[in-house]
Amino acid sequence: MSNLLLVDDDDFVRSALSRALNRTGGFTVIPAEHGKRALELLATEHVDAILTDLQMPVMDGLTLLAELFEKEVRLPVAVMTGQQIHADLRHRLQTYGIAAVFSKPVDVVLLADELQRVLDPKAVGRISGITLFGLLQLLEVERKSGLVLVKASQREGRLYFDEGTFVHAHTRVLDGLEAAYEILGWPDPAVEIFYKRRARQRTVREPLQHVLMEAARLLDESGKSGIQEQRAVPATPRADFDADSILGDVLKIDGAIGAALVQATNGAILGQVAVGRGLDMTRAAKIAQDLVQAALRLRDGIEDIMITVDTQYHVMRLLGPGEDVFVHLVLDRERASLGMARQQLAKLARSSGH
């Protein structure tokens, strides 16, 4: 959780924003009524980021920014203001290296999202190339907490998890299960994960698997599922894979903490190894198989599938022209280069002779 120094002279605004941002779970707010007080707090408190108003008595926001710039304070700073951002002011803000500018009155929900994007980017993951169903299952397995923000065709939905338990869903007009089924039915969603965020209420008490099964049933009934045309995949396991050799090569990739070789059609694990503490490759590979099957249904030349979670990267790569086997690689985010790992995994797939 990041310590956010909030600087605003309006008692009501400062109090309301402090309560609202504290409730999101992403920030611990340290309030200050003007720039001078903010500088005093910076000398005694641990601060990760700053959000400041511009127009304040005693010391205004621009003077505070100048002081921070002069003192070479290397913290991400965002500004909120009710005044018009004219060219001269914009230039001054750019000179101070401002991370973001928000116009008053602020939407607290959107403010929390954008603050976390620009002030705490390590706590935000952007997801592509996988199904939303599979991602939610992975969050359950990994016992993650946070907000899954889903956008599709100018619609926005929010799904909240608390230590792997699906607890709340929300759209602009719906809450709870109705919102969850609506969100899970959107085609081609763009997805972001905001770790550390928490729901203000619990509106979902059914197990995630029940919710996903019901959502899939509703999709089938509405004709949206798009699973009628499925790519033909050989049903028998391939005998020409040397699982131990392939897994040994995979674990040589920098940052690798686990790997599995899985048959895409039935989820049979041809081989697995885990060196990361507490890593359950059997469960992870089962979820990966669901993701690969869903991706194959897209019928659109898959290179690999990637998931970013709090401390790990998960990369799945199909092996062979028949696309009946894939390798599931788990990387430690602190030690791995995702781009390099993908290249090495692609090279391994080519050099295996399939």
Explain what this protein looks like in three dimensions.
- The structure is a single chain.
- By secondary structure, the protein is α/β, with parallel strands linked by helices.
- Helices cover 36% and strands 26% of the residues.
- β8 and β9 form a beta hairpin.
- α2 runs parallel beside α3, α6 runs antiparallel to α10 and α7 crosses α8.
- The longest helix has 16 residues.
- It starts with a strand and ends with a helix.
- 36% of the residues are buried.
- About 4% of the residues have low confidence.
Defining key terms:
five-stranded parallel sheet; five-stranded antiparallel sheet; globular
Which helices and strands occur, and which strands form pairs?
Blueprint: E1 2-7, H1 11-24, E2 27-32, H2 35-44, E3 49-53, H3 61-70, E4 77-81, H4 87-95, E5 100-103, H5 108-119, E6 124-127, H6 132-141, E7 146-152, E8 155-162, E9 165-171, H7 176-184, E10 190-195, H8 208-222, H9 243-250, E11 256-263, E12 269-274, H10 281-296, E13 304-308, E14 312-319, E15 325-332, H11 338-351
Parallel strand pairs: 1-2, 1-3, 3-4, 4-5
Antiparallel strand pairs: 6-10, 7-8, 7-10, 8-9, 11-12, 11-15, 13-14, 14-15
